[in-house]
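User: Please predict the structure of the protein below. I'd like the answer in C-alpha cell form so I can feed it into my own downstream comparison script.

Assistant: Understood. Taking the following sequence of 56 residues as input:
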Amino acid sequence: MPKVTVEIPQHIVDDVNAHVGDGKKFVSFSDAVRTALRKMLDQLDEIDRRRGRIQE
C-alpha cells in the first residue's frame, strides 16, 4: 500500500485522534483517514450518478 504525506491542521488531527484507540471507532489514524476517503469517494460517485456523469 502506498504511503502518502499530507499536511493536516492540528485541530483536525486532534479531533480524529479522539475517535482512535481501544474501544473507539477506529483502530488507527490511518484507518480513520482511509474510511473518510472511501466515504467521500462514495458520496462523489453518488453525485456523479445523479448528474449523469457515471454509467451504472
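That's the full C-alpha cell string. The first helix runs from residue 10 to 17.
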